[in-house]
Amino acid sequence: MTSSPGDGERSGTRDVAVVGAGPAGQFIAAELHRFGLDVALLERRKTMAPGSRAIGIHSPALAALEPSGAVDSILAEAARIRRGEARTRSRTLGSVRFDRAGKRFPFSIAVPQSVTERALSELGPTPLRDVEVLAVENCGDAVELSTTSVGMPSRIRAKAAVIATGSSGRFLAAGEHDRRTYTDHFLMADIVEDAHQPEETAVITLDRAGVLESLPLPQGGRRIVAWDAGHATTEPVQDQLSRLRTAVEQRTGDSELANRIDSVSGFGIRNVLLRRMRHDRVFVIGDAAHEISPIGGQGMNLGLLDAATLAPRLGQLVRGRAGAELELDRWERRRLESGRFAAKLAALNTLAGRPRSRFGHAVRSAIVASALGTPLGRVAARAYGMGFDRDARLRR
């Protein structure tokens, strides 16, 4: 069942309008709905997207999702990742563990984004689909959204609005941002039932020609991501496929793994950070606020933590509770700090994974091996598992 934007307009002022029904948008809509608020969830897509590159959910985000009731169904279709291993073709450099005692969820998981969205969609309001939001305007103690659906303009009024559109709707925030676009290019493939790879282990292979990652997927599959020298978006897929197979075989020595690859996609990376996530009664979360390189798998997690921490504070604002404004200012500072940290970590990951000379590769390998053999290994595990996010401990 879907509705038209006119339904929201006729019903008067909604408590909150959420723009975008991706993971962050559906999550905050579900949380606000759980708190008893009247929420309009607006989505320009006619149907749920089949998926994206985002598959990783770390322990703090799982803990944040737990009160919603979505975790069990997500975990039922997920692959656990309990450790990470750094290698070169000839030797293992060291490992880190994500299953240290004391965590509510002693692992990260890999799960298709469509699974996460489906679990969240069962908990919140039904999205108003085929609705494009053209503008969002603060109007004193309310917000007005200009929308169009099937070519018919309309307006929706709410006490607050959340922009969770991803990068495509960042213009709605109308705020300044910092952007860094990288020249690095990557190739990616998903392999079904690759049993000879280590279970519950993410394997990072450092090579003179660039990094190669092998990540667990549900049902024994693996995701392969490799630094690539190509950049042309019009390049024939067969050329990319051949190059990825060659990269896997040359960097890992695993010809069986290389031969299992039968599809490929390429992508570049960038980091985009808004300088503000709040404009009076308009709030920006997820990729719309901080688009982070997917290398490291923290982007979707940032959005989920944005939503989990914003929802109760937004409920206080809508209900006119004392102190709500100060709490929201504090929320913004913490989430901006978390986004900046994730962007720095993504930049470090990118730098560490680039091609090196023979000498540079030897030095890099020695540094990684030395670091993983000390307490720095625990620091690395905490960083890559989102443990340094400013709100990582709020819902454990």
From TrEMBL:
Cited InterPro entries: FAD-bd, FAD/NAD-bd_sf, PheA/TfdB_FAD_monoxygenase
GO terms, molecular function: 3-(3-hydroxyphenyl)propionate hydroxylase activity; FAD binding
Classification via Pfam families: FAD_binding_3 (PF01494)
Keywords, sorted A to Z: Monooxygenase, Oxidoreductase
SUPFAM superfamilies, per the entry: FAD/NAD(P)-binding domain
Span of domain FAD-binding: 15-339
Oxidoreductase listed as a keyword: yes
Single Gene Ontology BP annotation: 3-(3-hydroxy)phenylpropionate catabolic process
PANTHER family with a match to the protein in the record: 3-(3-HYDROXY-PHENYL)PROPIONATE/3-HYDROXYCINNAMIC ACID HYDROXYLASE (PTHR43476), FAD-BINDING MONOOXYGENASE (PTHR43476:SF3)
Name by which UniProt lists this protein: FAD-dependent monooxygenase
Organism name: Candidatus Agrococcus pullicola
